[in-house]
């Protein structure tokens, strides 16, 4: 700008500097570019610094960008009790702490400087800090058949765990300590999410020696020091049908003892009835079965006959009903026509 000197009429040069504009050009909002990862339940620090704070106006923190962003903290007075300034009343450090982190806190956070006005207008934003939350999976839950299943059948078992992050997880099945081959687990949702769930199904054939066996689902995740296991005891679902034999022993005083041998059954739920010529003569419910080493049970029931009273052929029947939830486990052994024809214990029974 040219100005004339009123006295000597000599030109003078006047230089004007608009300080506010220079300050606006120099002010920068700085956030670290590196993403931040934190375990669920802990406290995380999100760093933000301004090169100066001479420009009037507040600094605010937002989760997300664009029209859907959400204000989470205002240095003029935050309302969220989980969020606090790292250095209160600082003119350049606008870092915040977020406590008790949850998977829902996952997202990108922006530190934004506003220019004072009516209303305040956004002046400059930091580049954003991506926050991810590491969350442990829940204890795996194993489910299987609702009722008891006969030995020899193939059944499905399902394992579920939920609430973990990040998405990568390992899952395997074991029967006792032996791996079971199965399909890859399903992790959902398939798209990005704050937390994830996993499910897997395997098939197992039940064997007679499985009363003490366990089906195990094991999951491993970067948040775990040791894998988590969910278990199902096969004793809760397996049914081992009994093997039944009948034999006789002759006793003094012209008596005969007919024995019904019930072997290797599980669970220990068995009713035994003795029939003479189709008429029930005895019923045994509260028996003292012997537990075998493999977890199954065995039991002998006896029925005594006075041979001197036998005038004609008799039919002696031992009726074994195992696990009365189903009628197909009733086994009948009949011996006719003469009691003397009942095999002895050492005879083979066909």
From TrEMBL:
Xref: PROSITE patterns: IG_LIKE
CDD domains assigned: IgC1_SIRP_domain_2
Domain Ig-like as annotated: residue spans: 25-111, 137-235, 242-329
Keyword Disulfide bond: yes
Keyword field contains Manganese: no
Coiled coil segments of this chain: none
Keyword line: Disulfide bond, Glycoprotein, Immunoglobulin domain, Signal
PANTHER family the UniProt entry points to: SIGNAL-REGULATORY PROTEIN BETA
Protein name per its UniProtKB record: Ig-like domain-containing protein
Native organism: Monodelphis domestica
